[in-house]
Amino acid sequence: MATIKKQFTEQETDRIIEMAWEDRTPFDAIKFQFGLSEADVKALMKRELKFSSYRLWRERVEACATKHAKKRNEEISRFKCSLQRQITLNKISKRR
């Protein structure tokens, strides 16, 4: 089983879980931002979620082609939608 080397704050852990639940956020984005491999994310999710929630998440991840770079459409090269709002200092920027 993967071991998580770095300790994360509660806010960072919440963000990792949020990114892991999002269908369009690949594991590569989590690795880029937090340095966690796919196995590390799975270990964190298993530790932080109820077992039933973890099981549902795993089923979703295995079926979701956008979570894995190898299964992802080659035309998609971004981590997020260009229309997605930016989050800075826990405030959502509004589109103008």
Any overview of this molecule?
- The chain has 96 residues and is mainly alpha-helical.
- It has one domain (10-73, 80-92).
- Helices cover 46% and strands 4% of the residues.
- The protein is built from four helices and two strands; from the N terminus they run H-H-H-H-E-E.
- The chain has helices at residues 10-21, 27-34, 38-48, 51-63, and strands at residues 87-88, 91-92.
- The protein has a two-stranded antiparallel sheet with strand order 1-2.
- Helix 1 runs antiparallel to helix 2 (27-34).
- The N and C termini lie far apart (46 Å).
- This is TIGR03643 family protein.
- InterPro entries: CHP03643.
- Pfam families: DUF2805.
How are the SSEs ordered, and which strands pair?
Elements lengths: L9 H12 L5 H8 L3 H11 L2 H13 L23 E2 L2 E2 L4
Antiparallel strand pairs: 1-2
Helix pairs in contact: 1-2
Q: What's the total helix number?
A: 4
Mean model confidence by pLDDT? 77
The total number of structural domains is: 1
Rg to the nearest angstrom?
14 Å
Gross morphology is globular
Structural class: mainly alpha
Largest sheet: 2 strands, antiparallel
Strand order of the largest sheet: 1-2
| Total E-strand runs | 2
Query: Spans of 5+ residues with little confidence (pLDDT < 50)?
Result: 89-96
Report helical residue fraction. Answer: 40-55%
End-to-end distance: 46 Å
